[in-house]
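A quick aside before the break. I want you to see a complete sequence-to-structure record at least once, exactly as it would be stored in a machine-readable document. Don't worry about memorizing anything.
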Amino acid sequence: TQLNQKEQLIQQKDTQLNQKEQSMQQMKEKYDSLIISKSFLIGNLFFRSIKKPYKLLTFPINFFKLITNNKKLNNIVTDKQNIYTIEDLIYKNITHEIYPISWIPVSRDTLRLNVVTDSISKESLFGGVATALILATLFSNKYNIPIRIITRSKRIDPQDFIIFLDMMKLKLPRDIEFFSDYDRNIKDVKEKLEISDKDIFMATSWWSAQVINNINQRNIFFYILQEVEAMFYPNGDYQVMCEKMLKQDNIKYLLNTKLLSDYYEKQSDISVYKNSSFFEPTFPSYMYYPSENQFIKKYKKTLFFYARPNNSRNLYYTGLQIINNAIKENIIDTNEWNIYFAGSEYEEIFKFVDGSRPIFLGLLSWQEYLEFVRSVDLGICLMHTPHPSYPPLDIVASGGVVLTNKYKNKQTLKMYSENIIVSDLDDESMMINLQKAITLSKEISKREENYRNNNIKKDWNDSFEEMLEFMYKYK
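That is the input. The structure line, written in tokens, reads:
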């Protein structure tokens, strides 16, 4: 009932917000028309002047009079525009996710784990978000500590979380709460987050860590760090804000993979490594396994390009060039391969050098993705960071072969599987290693043998055994 009442309130506020936006649009149109009128007056003044050259001498004076005397035109912006504080301006233009959570102090007798993330909607429950929720669930169940999930970008539907745990074959925590301030910009929504010194916090990104740092009532909080997040951005404000968080001494970092831990060990200017523990992710055998046709010869094989044009670290255009060059050099024969793109929505339609086109799958649900990846013979999955990323491991855990790229300390991934080939990014190396990957994908018996010898964890309890102890120690 409370949720329905809140939903009705939100709908009313959405209606009011839409009305306000329409009013603002009308004001903008009025302003735009006045600007056009102003421009016309200035233009008219100038052209009247050049018809009589001697009047050009008086144009600056007349122009100044036109601007200063026309109060109606001159004041429309300053009368109506918002005047921001510096803090609000930064929150508005940098990232609204760092806007502070409105909270109130309360007393509480027992510990509670709080996970702060952007969203747990079904389209968000992949990779890093999924891993964070699994860790939090196992911690809650093992130590009988209640859990509260806090989202900042989208409202919570608890059913999404229940379905997710069911898919992962995880027990639902006995005591679980949900909170979201995604509607924090609606003035009449006054709900505040209750916080006590018994609330343990876990961040899932640098921006959620920044928010937690301002409300945490304990000596430390946890931060599950699953990438070199500063590499998400060019040199600029975002990168500086991210790196500032990584220099905090009151954070215990939960690092995804030893590769990421090894990378941070060499970064002496930040506090991550000395305050961290790492885990290796799990790819359960009830989710990741080969299809019935995976290890047989096929008339046409499946090539999957993990294609995300809006995520620069995935080297979308580099990947396009690799595939196009391989077709041009007859390394890839499109009569033998169906080329699939997935991982994003695609607006641009194109063709390769031989006139063939990829098959665009767009954003898949988790179940659709799992079904597809079981049929993949060869994946091209680029990641220009030290982390291996999940798609290469998804593919080899399902019986396929992967070509990916080297980066700093990521020089090999044979510790996971012999079916992963890692290459330098120059054209010659990529063509040589792509040919190796194609050859291996066709050597069915060798490929299957490598799959059977994979060194990939299959149980999250095994993955997180030491991590759970680390968290409990510093809780």
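Two observations worth writing down. The CA atoms of residues 200 and 459 lie 25 Å apart. The chain has 17 helices and 15 strands. We'll return to this after the break.
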